[in-house]
């Protein structure tokens, strides 16, 4: 029963992610959509691995976590557990479940380590080649002719702009871009992207995973736009994005979040959204989406805890 419920939940998450990548209401409430995406991703991982392990440990009749404990105890004491726990289907399901769980955890941890190392190297490089500018206090300026503006999130977060960007943008446009980068730093959008980047490494062939990562990247840019527009004119931010696009901006370094993130189509969607914002998403729809996100996030762990 638990295995079937977890399998159904994993299927719901997979189908929901496929349908969710084409949804356009998310542009009207990017933060709500990001929370729902995170719930879908986490639940899919727990439900998929949990379904395999629940079936594999079914002979112990203790659920997933209880079955894992019983299996570990029997292995430690040299026991064999229930007789049908070691037939071929249960063994294969156990190997598949443990392997998938290990891969998801390992790839996520490896992606985090690589990102941290890339940021450390880039900070060391910035210490050598960047400078302070009294016109933009608190921002590191790199003497490069290309247009660049990005942030390095973390405990020692930094916002970086190039000399080319300073020449390209007006003071109001520069203020809008810096507000956008500060929003990335404050809301830690790098942590939002991390599990989706890791999932892309696990399933590089999956079109759904590719589209999911692209959608989340666009949503965090829109969320940063929304926060920036509290402190600046949205039209100034839109013109800054257009100026960056026509100037062929410098690629954002690995581990950083840039003002021009994603595809050209995504940038134009952001510009259109800033210039002609649509109506806000109704509160009842937001409440429904948040309720669904919480329900998904809670359902898989509860099913792991339930006995068979």
UniProtKB/TrEMBL annotation:
Keyword Zinc: yes
Domain Peptidase M48, first and last residues per copy: 123-196
Cofactor(s) essential for the protein: Zn(2+)
Coiled coil (residue ranges): none
MF terms (GO), sorted A to Z: metal ion binding; metalloendopeptidase activity
Residue ranges of the TM segments: 35-57, 88-113, 287-306
Record's keyword terms, sorted: Hydrolase, Membrane, Metal-binding, Metalloprotease, Protease, Transmembrane, Transmembrane helix, Zinc
Pfam families hit by this protein: Peptidase_M48 (PF01435)
Gene Ontology terms describing biological process: proteolysis
Cofactor mode of binding and number, as noted: Binds 1 zinc ion per subunit.
Record-stated family: Belongs to the peptidase M48 family.
Protein name per its UniProtKB record: M56 family peptidase
Species this chain originates from: Spongiactinospora rosea
UniProt lineage: Bacteria, Bacillati, Actinomycetota, Actinomycetes, Streptosporangiales
